[in-house]
């Protein structure tokens, strides 16, 4: 089933969501958030349970190559497809698909973001194997959807139409992709049972995704082919300048929302895209006061809060439901409900 299969791990980011711990040169995938490990390290460990190391590749920005090599010691650079500049997921996936297709015309891609939390890994691995089986048999785009456990407004959703196979009851045809909804809409989606969280994980033949890019984003695919022709001849300056001019769009918006070849595998594993400090707080084990306290901190009458100090002494007293993060780069103090605002704070300081 895994013959001709490859895993492509996408990593990048601007380092805004987890300021002041993250930065543009060390965004979310590379900071140690879960049990002293980075999300990209955990993603790689999961990938190795599915395929051997020599069939796992990374697509990553040039400025993040060194953090990747530090996160995964011993990783050979031949397994890194570096981008001169991030141009969103459509370019990232198209770039990897062209390179893999040159290596193996029968290749199948498993596309995994590097910055997600996965629980119940055995169920995750099973879902990937089921998706590979579907992609091997059908010329389709397989996405993995997660049954929602709460009305989440920070995720995109997938609406399904019908089960496609009695043999595979977790395989559905897809009606539409929906961007981040309002809270009322999210509540409707959870109650409906026809909507799943869009995990951003995909499985398909490289030949099929290239056909879909040709159909829906032909100028992007032409641009990528031009870039790779410069890369082959060693003209890295032309490769870089042309890559930076590519259309910047997501694979969801550019292809998935427009294609009539999309199917969905239901994933029963635990999933979170760990998009904010509050989402990280939700995943972590709490103490007797419902706090998460990391680093050298002193708490007095603090409840329901996430407290992190790195390299500084931190004291917090008389607060509840707050996020406090103190590093040498800066100090963040906000109520948990304002966790989404951290990006705006980070942008302010990064622009100085």
**Highest-level CATH class of the largest domain:** Alpha Beta
Structural class: alpha/beta
State the end-to-end distance. Answer: 51 Å
**What is the mean pLDDT?**
95
Describe the biggest sheet?
Answer: 5 strands, mixed, barrel
CATH superfamily of the largest domain: Spore Coat Polysaccharide Biosynthesis Protein SpsA, Chain A
CATH architecture of the largest domain: Alpha-Beta Complex
Low-confidence runs: none
Task: Please give the structural blueprint.
Elements: E1 5-11, E2 32-34, E3 37-38, H1 39-48, E4 56-61, H2 65-71, E5 80-83, H3 88-103, E6 108-113, E7 117-119, H4 121-137, E8 141-146, E9 157-163, E10 171-178, H5 183-192, E11 195-205, H6 206-216, H7 218-233, H8 236-243, H9 251-256, E12 262-266, E13 270-272, H10 277-283, E14 292-294, E15 297-300, E16 306-309, E17 314-317, E18 322-327, E19 330-335, H11 342-350
Parallel strand pairs: 1-4, 1-6, 4-5, 8-12, 14-16, 15-17, 16-18
Antiparallel strand pairs: 2-3, 6-11, 7-13, 8-11, 9-10, 9-11, 10-12, 18-19
Description:
- The chain has helices at 39-48, 65-71, 88-103, 121-137, 183-192, 206-216, 218-233, 236-243, 251-256, 277-283, 342-350; strands at residues 5-11, 32-34, 37-38, 56-61, 80-83, 108-113, 117-119, 141-146, 157-163, 171-178, 195-205, 262-266, 270-272, 292-294, 297-300, 306-309, 314-317, 322-327, 330-335.
- The chain has 352 residues and is an alpha/beta fold.
- The chain has two domains: 5-273, Spore Coat Polysaccharide Biosynthesis Protein SpsA, Chain A (Alpha-Beta Complex), CATH 3.90.550.10; 278-350, no CATH class.
- The strands form five sheets. Strands 8-11-9-10-12 form a five-stranded mixed barrel. Strands 14-16-18-19 form a four-stranded mixed beta sheet, with helices on one face. It has a two-stranded antiparallel sheet with strand order 2-3.
- A hairpin with a 2-residue loop joins strand 18 and strand 19.
- Helix 3 crosses helix 6 (206-216).
- The radius of gyration is 21 Å and the shape is globular.
């Amino acid at each position: 089933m895994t013959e001709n299969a490859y895993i492509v791990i996408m990593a990048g980011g601007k380092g805004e969501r987890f300021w002041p711990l993250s930065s543009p040169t060390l965004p979310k995938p590379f900071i140690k958030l879960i049990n002293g490990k980075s999300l990209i390290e955990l993603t790689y460990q999961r990938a190795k349970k599915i395929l051997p190391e020599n069939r796992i590749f990374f697509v990553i920005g040039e400025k993040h190559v060194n953090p990747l090599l530090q996160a995964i010691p011993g990783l050979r650079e031949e397994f890194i497809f570096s981008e001169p500049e991030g141009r969103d997921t459509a370019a990232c996936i198209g770039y990897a698909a062209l390179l893999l297709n040159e290596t193996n015309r029968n290749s199948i891609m498993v596309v995994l973001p590097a910055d997600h939390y996965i629980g119940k890994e055995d169920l995750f691995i099973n879902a990937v194997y089921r998706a590979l089986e579907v992609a091997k048999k059908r010329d389709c785009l397989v996405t993995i959807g997660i049954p929602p456990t709460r009305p989440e407004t920070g995720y995109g959703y997938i609406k399904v139409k019908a089960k496609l196979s009695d043999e595979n009851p977790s395989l559905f045809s897809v009606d539409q992709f929906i961007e981040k909804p309002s809270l009322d809409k999210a509540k409707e989606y959870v109650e409906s049972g026809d909507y799943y969280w869009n995990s951003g994980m995909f499985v398909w033949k490289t030949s099929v995704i290239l056909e879909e890019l040709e159909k829906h984003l032909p100028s992007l695919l032409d641009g990528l082919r031009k870039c790779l022709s410069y890369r082959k001849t060693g003209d890295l300056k032309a490769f870089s300048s042309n890559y930076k001019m590519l259309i910047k769009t997501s694979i969801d918006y550019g292809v998935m929302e427009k294609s009539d070849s999309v199917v969905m595998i239901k994933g029963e594993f635990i999933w979170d895209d760990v998009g904010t400090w509050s989402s990280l707080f939700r995943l972590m084990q709490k103490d007797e006061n419902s706090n998460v306290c990391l680093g050298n901190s002193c708490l007095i009458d603090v409840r329901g809060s996430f407290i992190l100090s790195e390299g500084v002494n931190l004291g917090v007293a008389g607060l509840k439901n707050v996020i406090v993060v103190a590093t040498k780069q800066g100090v963040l103090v906000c109520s948990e409900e304002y966790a989404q605002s951290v990006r705006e704070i980070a942008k302010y300081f990064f622009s100085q």
